Each structure stands twice: as C-alpha cells, then as structure tokens.
C-alpha cells in the first residue's frame, strides 16, 4: 500500500478518486507542528536550533498517518507546491521518522492543479524534498519568531496597551500610519476651472480653458474667484473656431493572468472581498479542481492552457479577437519567487463554477485568464483645440472612441482610485468650424489629500516595495485588524490610536527594522536561501547580532523615559503650532499647566502637568486637540433629588457624566447610541438612576432589571439575560415586553438562557469550514462552531482573539470532550479543560507572525 499525504480532506477526497486501489490518501489538516509559543523555541546560541511541538488538536490525524505509514511500502508527500507545502511535507517526514514509522521509500510530488491529468503526471515524476525551500521556511519561521518574541515583550513593558509587533506586520502598519499623517498635514489649495459647453451638428461636448491672456493654464493656475470670473467673461465674449484637430490611434494590451497579489487587489476592487476571504474562496476552488494553485508570483500559463484558451476565444468570438501568436508574459514583480503558473481555470470550456462568492471569484479568474490571450483593443484618441479671434484665449476638448474592443469585450481591469479619463465621444469637426457656445462655467475646487489605503492598494504597495510575500498578505492585514491597530471604514484603512503609538515607538527606537529598504533587503536574503545562494543560519546570525543588543538597550530604559522620548518625537503631530502663535502645549482648562504625553494602564493619552489639581485629558490620537477635544467639564444642572451638580466630562474612554466627588462619585458612560449633543440634564438623571427595576417576574416573583452593560443595554432576571435594542428601551420597556424578551432569549440561548447574538463572527474554521462565533455566556465569553463550545481562558483577551486561536480552542475542547462522558467519577477530571487553557499562549504566537 502507498500512503499519500495532502493538507486538506477535500483535496484528499478528490485525489483518491484519481489514483488506483493501491493508494490511500490522508490529510494532515495543514501544519502538524510549530514552534511552541514560549521563550527558547529558537536557540540563537546553538545554531538557531528549533524545538518543534506537535499541535494538540492534530493528535487524531497524526495517529492515523502514523498507523498507515507503518503499513505502507511508500510514502508520497503531495502537499502544495510552495515553501509552506514543502515545510508541511518535511514536518510529516520528521515526525514519522521520530516515531520510527517512516516507510523505506519517501517521494515528493507536486501539481499545480487538482485534475486527473495533473495528478497522474506528477505521480510519474517524483522527486526528493527540496532542502533549499525547507531551509528558507526555517529561516523565515525563526526570524518571525525572534522578532515577535523579542520585540513584543519590549512593547508590553514599555508601551502600555500595545499588543504585538511583527516583522512584516509592523511595516505594513507604518504605511497606513504614514498615510494618516499625510492626510492630517495636508493643506487644501483652492483652484478654479473654466469650461464651455458647446455644440456641433446637434451633438454637445465640453471644452476646458487651456490658455488665457496668452498664458498656459494648468490645473492650479487660477487660484482666486476674481480671476476665474474674469476668465469666464473673456470666454463668454469670444468667438471660438477650431484651430487644430488631432486624431491619434491608441492600442491597449490585455493584462496578464492573475498572481496572488493581483487577484487580491482585483477581488477587493470589483467584488469587495477582503484578502483573507479571497484566499479562502480561491483555496476551495483549487481543492475542487476548478483553478490552478492560488499562491504564485508567476504570470505565465502552460502551453496546453494557452492552446485551450485560444480555442475558447475562437469559439466565442470571430477571428479578429484572436491574435496571430500566443501571448507570453514575464513576471515583473520584485523578488518573484517560486514562479509557478499564473492563477487560471483548469478547463477553459468551463465558464461557470459553483454559486455565490465561489461563482463570482471563478468568473473573475476565468475572464482575466481568457482575456490575457485575446487581441489588443484599438482606440482613437481625439484632441480639438479652439481659439478665439484674438488668439489670446484657447479651449481644448478631448475624447476617445473604441474602434475595436478586443479583450475589452470580455474584461477591463479595475482601478484603486478614480482617475481623470476623458473617454467621451466628440462630434466630427474640421479646422475653421465654429461650434455654438451654449454656456460657460467657472467652478471652485480644492486639492484633495492622498486617499487612504484600501486592501487592494495596500497589497499593491507592499508588493511594489518588495515587503513580505503575496501568500502572507491576507494574514498580515488580518493581524492588524485583530490587534485593533487599524479599522476598516468604507473599504479603507484608518490607523487607530494604538497603531499610531506602536508605529511611533518603532520609528523612534527601532527605525532600521521598520524601514522599507531593510525589510525588502531581508526578503531578498530569504529568497537567496530558497534559491540555494545563501546559508540560512548565516542570514539569521547577521540579523540577530544587531537586533538583540538593540532590544536589550531599549528594555533597560524606564517607561517614563520612553514616554518622554515619544512626547518629543510626536510633538509636531500632537502639538502643532497654533495660528495665533500661542503655546500649543498650554492646558486649555487651567491655563498655566503644560500638556504632555502620558502612559497609562490602558494606553497613551495627553494630560496636564498640574495633575491632580487639573484633570484635563484628551485622547492620544487627537492632533492638537482636534476632533472632540476636552475643553473642560460642562455642568448640565443639579440633580432634582440630591441637589448635586451633574457634570459632563470627556475621558480617555469617551464622554461620561459624573455626580459627586472622590470615591462617593457616581459616574456613567454616555451610550454610543445617544449622541453627545443630546446629553441633557434629563438624560443624565436617567442614566445615573440605573439599574432600573422593571418589576417582579409574574412566575418567579424575582425582580427584572434593565441596565447598560459592557455589550450594551440588557434585561436581567434570575441570572439570565435578554438583549434590548437601544438605550431608550431601558426606560420604556414594560413588564409584558420584558417577560417576552427574556423568554425569547431563553428559548434561543440554550444553557443559561444567555443572549444568542454573537459578539463577533470570527470566520470559518480553517479545517472544518464551520462558522466560528464569539459569544457572551453566563460564565464568560466563549467561542463556538455550532457543535463545540470552548470557554476563553482568562489569559486570552476576547478583543484580541484571532480566528486561528479560536479554532485551536474549539479543536482542543472537542478532543477533550470524550473524557467527560460516562459515569460521574470521571467528571472530576478538570484536566479535560487543560488543552483549551494551554492554547492561551497562542496569543503570543500570533504576535510573532
């Protein structure tokens, strides 16, 4: 019997159908082991020796593989055709060797598509494991571990509120933060445009002013309304005739088939997919045999695929759409590695696959690959210059006409941001024609700051800089989101306060390691290892000998000294010069205090030097106190019963109300669904009166209470919860409605009657595809895949929980579940819960990535 190992059960099932009865195909479910999330997993003092640890949730798969390997005459490692696939095969081989279960014959096979022909062809051409790729994997894994587990503790101790730092993650974050700074420092410039709406032969068109008073007009030339109105009057008074008509043929060639990064970019632009979602769907299409391997830098297609594409084009379109010779593309990406084929359909006669997002992504891949072999589009670009009788003023109209669509008949590449593209049709005109002038307009404009990065444009920028690898971009961007260093609004990245602070810290104390050139250069060295041109331990040694002393130097500094240095470093952003020339650090509350950056348990903030006498604070991320600056307490009025002042304040965690002073003071946050401007005395009195007792439950006689909690407004009765829709409902809900809501929550909630609305949907389980949700339970937050529930260990912050960490908790809980079955005696085995708690350090592991 011959044992074949692949990553996923879906892939195993498909491949086993193609092979004969002598083959048994098993899945490893991805990586089977990794570096333990603890100090010492990589030992720089002993040749960067690595201590690997099997995943706790892979015990069942490893046992099955080991049992079958002992009976097999040959082991065929058929994992994915890239560095990670090579690493998985190597790990399987090493684990079996340690268990003395390695068959005498071990072969490695790779295929770029899961089709019968590709699989059988690969089986006929086995090879040995690629040691260079394995060394490159070890170097990359060790490097990411050393950066994460050396730099992250520095952050935790010296920068309160920071969660992690990673080699590629930190540089990607820097790009987002730098764009945020560009936008904030941008000063808009006013300019005006003058244009005439004209008509020739019954067809209208627009011509813009390009020369005025004999001077050339650029976009920013006319900067004042007075000049714009004068220019408008001159155009209105002039009689314009056609001086020149220039027609220029233009050819547009089709873009090449998708690579990993271009697929992520185009799916983000056209389908609104995140990079991680795109890769997840592409993985499933690959495993279903619909497309070729989706982690690639290559843009070339196999000769047989090109022939199939040309045949499909000939069947769909007439001969003009098929170029005489097949198109050949060359990879231009910096540091192109492991150049497999481009991403393409396995069959060009199959234009539809699946449904929903699978169908949409496949359609994109199919059209792009097919269009790449189609004829060029031919266009005609026309420019018409019109001059008035004095020759001092000139207008220009431009447009283009598609003469032959070529590949545009099937596919047109999207754009990250809108660009001026004057593609309007123009009427036929000749020199001497005098088109009718219908209307002249003068419009005011302002220059715009550079746009924030979208996933597509950020991936494109990372690739241009040679930072990271396309196959890792999805996980890199996901880490930034999971750590709350960035947020996504309208498909754009916004830098959060924590992300800005971490970036400032790294720029000030670890500038070299977040520089674009250094990071790209390190990628070159890693690629040299995979190409056999460098020794992996030598590359790590060169990095470590400078990096380790630098982290030790920063670790020795006091947190207060770190904060003081950051205060100086960030002064231009936090305390920009004021228009009136006054001191930008002057406290707006007490007048004589000086503002400076402070570090607290929950992160950085701006505070007055006269604390505690002056309690002025504002958020770290408000440059110069903009966007909601705390201008001091506002007295809303006196409480009708106590007569005490109720004061509205703004703290590090947002606006709140306070009545009284010191330990006896009563406080309440202003709910997000209640706009700050609506915080009246009546609302303040209501909020300070919480919790509100709705009444006694008619069945139990126990009180029903309405209140605001960590996750919003709720009802509480006998330890069971029901969710309310708004803050207003807390004060409006009556007994009948409250009883109904609690009953509904109990029916949906299962154990404990907790509300079943998820706190967060984390995504699909990477191995079972079940949707994983973060839930609020009676005994604390937990994660569930619909079948297995796993309580979050105390060491794991629910806001920082990643999909992989949740999946590991669920897998560990599922593996431990059988120990709870049977009689009461074994129920004492609290150890059954240990696997889940053991995964708590997975938070650190993610930090290292």
TrEMBL record:
UniProt keyword list: DNA-binding, Isomerase, Magnesium, Metal-binding, Topoisomerase, Zinc, Zinc-finger
Leading EC class: isomerase
Compositionally biased spans, kind Basic residues: 820-849
Recorded GO MF terms: DNA topoisomerase type I (single strand cut, ATP-independent) activity
Annotated stretches, region: Interaction with DNA: 164-169
Annotated ranges, domain Topo IA-type catalytic: 130-551
Sequence ranges assigned to domain Toprim in this UniProt record: 1-114
Active site, renumbered: 293
Site (Interaction with DNA): 31, 140-141, 144, 156, 295, 483
Cited PANTHER family: DNA TOPOISOMERASE (PTHR42785:SF1), DNA TOPOISOMERASE, TYPE IA, CORE (PTHR42785)
Protein's recorded name: DNA topoisomerase 1
Source organism of this protein record: Sphingobium tyrosinilyticum
Encoding gene (name): topA
């Amino acid at each position: 019997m011959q044992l074949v190992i692949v990553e996923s059960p879906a892939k195993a099932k498909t491949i086993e159908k193609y092979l004969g009865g002598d083959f048994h195909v098993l899945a490893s479910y991805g990586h089977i082991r990794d570096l333990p999330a603890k100090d010492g997993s990589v030992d720089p003092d002993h040749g960067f020796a690595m201590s690997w640890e099997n995943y706790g949730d892979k015990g069942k798969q490893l046992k099955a593989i080991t049992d079958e390997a002992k009976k097999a005459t040959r082991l065929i490692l058929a994992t994915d055709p890239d560095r990670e696939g090579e690493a998985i095969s190597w790990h399987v081989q090493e684990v079996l060797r340690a268990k003395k279960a390695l068959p005498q014959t071990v072969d490695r096979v790779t295929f770029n598509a899961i089709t019968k022909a590709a699989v059988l062809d690969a089986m006929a051409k086995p090879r040995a494991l690629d040691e260079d790729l394995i060394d490159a994997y070890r170097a990359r894994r060790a490097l990411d571990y050393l950066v994460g587990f050396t730099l992250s503790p520095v952050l935790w101790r010296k920068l309160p509120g920071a969660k992690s730092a990673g080699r590629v993650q930190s540089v990607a974050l820097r790009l987002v933060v730098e764009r945020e700074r560009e936008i904030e420092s941008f000063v808009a410039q006013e300019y005006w445009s003058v244009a005439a709406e004209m008509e020739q032969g019954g067809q209208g068109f627009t011509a813009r002013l390009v020369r005025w008073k004999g001077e050339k007009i650029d976009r920013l030339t006319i900067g004042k309304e007075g000049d714009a109105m004068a220019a408008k009057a001159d155009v209105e008074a002039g009689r314009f005739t056609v001086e020149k008509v220039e027609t220029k043929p233009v050819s547009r060639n089709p873009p090449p088939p998708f690579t990993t990064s271009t697929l992520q970019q185009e799916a983000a632009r056209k389908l609104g997919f995140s990079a991680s979602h795109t890769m997840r769907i592409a993985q499933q299409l690959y495993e279903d045999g619909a497309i070729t391997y989706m982690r690639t830098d290559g843009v070339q297609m196999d000769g047989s695929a090109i022939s199939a594409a040309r045949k499909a084009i000939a069947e769909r379109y007439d001969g003009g759409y098929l170029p005489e010779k097949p198109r050949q593309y060359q990879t231009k990406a910096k540091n192109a590695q492991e150049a497999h084929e481009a991403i393409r359909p396995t069959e060009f006669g199959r234009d539809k696959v699946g449904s929903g997002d699978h169908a949409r992504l496949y359609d994109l891949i199919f059209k792009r690959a097919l269009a790449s072999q189609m004829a060029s589009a031919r266009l005609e670009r026309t420019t018409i210059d019109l001059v008035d009788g004095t020759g001092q003023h000139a207008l220009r109209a431009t447009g283009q006409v598609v003469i032959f669509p070529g590949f545009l008949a099937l596919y047109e590449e999207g754009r990250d941001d809108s660009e001026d593209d004057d593609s309007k049709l123009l009427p036929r005109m000749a020199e001497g024609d005098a088109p009718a002038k219908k209307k002249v307009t003068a419009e005011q404009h302002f220059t715009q700051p550079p746009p924030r990065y979208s996933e597509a444009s950020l991936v494109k920028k990372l690739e241009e800089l040679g930072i990271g690898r396309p196959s890792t971009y999805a996980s890199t961007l996901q880490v930034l989101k999971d750590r709350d260093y960035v947020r996504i609004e309208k498909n754009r990245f916004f830098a959060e306060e924590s992300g800005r602070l971490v970036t400032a810290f790294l720029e000030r104390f670890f500038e070299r390691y977040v520089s674009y050139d250094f990071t790209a250069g390190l990628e070159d060295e890693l690629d040299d290892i995979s190409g056999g041109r460098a020794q992996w331990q030598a590359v790590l040694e060169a990095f470590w000998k400078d990096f380790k002393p630098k982290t030790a130097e920063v670790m020795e500094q006091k947190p207060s000294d770190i904060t003081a240095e950051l205060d100086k470093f960030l002064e231009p952003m936090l305390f920009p010069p004021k228009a009136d020339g006054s001191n930008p650090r002057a406290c707006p509350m007490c007048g004589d205090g000086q503002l400076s950056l402070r570090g607290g348990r929950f992160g950085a903030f701006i505070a007055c030097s006269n604390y505690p006498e002056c309690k002025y604070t504002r958020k770290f991320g408000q440059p110069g106190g903009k966007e909601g600056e705390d201008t001091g307490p506002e007295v809303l009025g006196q409480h009708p019963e106590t007569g005490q002042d109720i004061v509205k304040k703004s703290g590090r965690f947002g606006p709140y109300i306070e009545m009284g002073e010191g330990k006896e003071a009563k406080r309440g946050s202003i709910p997000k669904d209640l706009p700050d401007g609506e915080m009246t005395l009546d609302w303040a009195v209501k909020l300070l009166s919480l919790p509100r007792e709705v009444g006694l439950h008619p069945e139990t006689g126990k009180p029903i209470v309405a209140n605001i909690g960590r996750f919003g407004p709720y009802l509480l009765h006998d330890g069971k919860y029901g969710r309310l829709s708004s803050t207003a409902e807390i004060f409006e809900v009556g007994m009948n409605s409250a009883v109904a809501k609690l009953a509904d929550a109990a029916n949906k909630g299962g154990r404990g009657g907790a509300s079943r609305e998820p706190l967060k949907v984390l995504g699909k389980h990477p191995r079972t595809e079940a949707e994983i949700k973060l839930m609020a339970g009676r005994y604390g937050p937990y994660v569930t895949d619909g079948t297995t529930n796993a309580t979050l260990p105390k060491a794991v912050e629910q806001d920082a929980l990643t999909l992989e960490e949740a999946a590991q908790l669920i897998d560990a809980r599922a593996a431990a579940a059988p120990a709870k079955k049977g009689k009461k005696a074994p129920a004492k085995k609290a150890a059954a819960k240990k696997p889940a708690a053991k995964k708590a350090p997975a938070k650190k592991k993610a930090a290292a990535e």
